[in-house]
Design a protein that fits this description.
The chain is α/β, with parallel strands linked by helices. The chain has a domain at 2-171 and 217-245 and 287-300: Rossmann fold (3-Layer(aba) Sandwich). Helices cover 34% and strands 16% of the residues. It contains ten helices and 13 strands. It has a seven-stranded parallel β-sheet, with helices on both faces. A two-stranded parallel ribbon has the order 7-10. A two-stranded parallel ribbon has the order 8-13. Helix 4 links the parallel strand 5 (109-115) and strand 6 (163-167). The protein is globular, with a radius of gyration of 19 Å.
Length: 331
């Protein structure tokens, strides 16, 4: 059995889609569906069992199923603007630590989601050496909760068996339910189809021009392939970045959407909300040398190619979900 927590979410459901392509359906999905549209990510997918998040957390007292091969722990609060620190502590830090302890005891492989938000403003770089965790200064509660989980797992020796991935800016199908946390690709596509320009944040910092903000954008299909590769490589353990190793400007992302649609670019620069300025990452770029050294596959899809696949094969087809379209592919 394969357990995927956060299985109805963005990355978790993309992982299940790929597992189905590999003829794996013996999957336990763990999530909280609530009243939103997240359930639609699961509709075209095959899995053997579903368990609510709270029920799963309580069941850990008795351990994991004996036939469990691997746990992909993608379940968490992923909002960088979430202010309920108790909620972040429980969902992102404590549950990750508890699950890692049980996986280690039962000798079950654990692949879990960390985040590039742990790097804060990037002043200390983006090296993923676990020894440097204590020096990092996340800009928000979300990043802090992820850093805390990383530190606890390192200090308890749990990274000697588990694999944590610091996701950079992941985008692609199955993210439509994430509201304000959706990628700029989806937001740009919606703005263009509404007849307006694409709106990007103006840069309010001295010495920087509009459009200088850049991120390491990585396609969700590539993220899934790297996680599956890590599962197949039992010698791999520890904490690793998961990005492309290349920073691209938000303007590049918007232009790629216009290009995929065959439209003339039109961009408006709007003021960044004051409440975001102190917790906004203006630049991220994954340092991928440790992943390369141990043989983990690097994300292979270029930005323009990934945007074209997402826009043309999903959004323009009226289907933003993997598995619900006849055009699903790996490139």
């Amino acid at each position: 059995m394969i357990i995927v927590t956060g299985g109805a979410g963005f990355i978790g459901s993309a992982l299940i889609w790929r597992l189905n392509q590999l003829d794996r359906r013996d999957i336990l999905v763990v999530d909280r569906l609530g009243t939103g549209e997240k359930w639609r990510n699961l509709a075209p997918l095959a899995f053997a069992e579903f368990q609510g998040k709270q029920e799963f957390a309580e069941s850990l007292e008795w351990g994991l199923p004996e036939d469990c091969e691997v746990v992909f722990h993608m379940g968490a609060c992923s909002s960088t603007t979430e202010r309920d620190a108790d909620y972040l502590m429980g969902n992102n830090a404590l549950l990750t630590r508890d699950l890692a302890r049980i996986c280690a005891q039962q000798k079950i492989r654990l692949i879990y989601a960390s985040s590039a938000a742990t790097y804060g403003d990037g002043a200390l770089g983006y090296a993923d050496d676990p020894g440097g965790i204590d020096r990092l200064a996340p800009l928000n509660g979300y990043g802090w909760s992820k850093q805390l989980a990383d530190r606890w797992l390192r200090d308890e020796g749990l990274l000697e068996t588990a694999v944590g991935f610091k996701f950079f800016n992941v985008f692609g199908p199955n993210e439509y339910h994430k509201e304000s946390m959706r990628s700029m690709v989806l937001k740009a596509w919606e703005q263009i189809h509404a007849g307006g320009p694409v709106r990007l944040f103006a840069n309010h910092r001295d010495g920087f021009a509009n459009g200088d903000e850049s991120r390491d954008f990585v396609y969700v299909k590539d993220v899934v392939e790297t996680m599956l590769a890590a599962w197949r490589m039992p010698e791999v353990h520890g904490l690793f970045n998961l990005g492309t190793g290349m920073a691209r400007r938000f303007e590049d992302l918007a232009l790629a959407v216009f290009q995929a649609l065959g439209r003339e670019p039109k961009i408006d620069w709007v003021p960044m909300p004051t409440e975001l300025r102190g917790q906004y990452q203006y630049h991220t770029c994954a340092e991928m040398s440790r992943s390369t050294a141990i043989g983990l596959p690097l994300p292979a899809t270029g930005l323009e190619e990934a945007v074209r696949d997402y826009v043309c094969n999903y959004l323009e087809n009226g289907c933003a979900r993997l598995g619900a379209s006849g055009t699903d592919s790996l490139s």
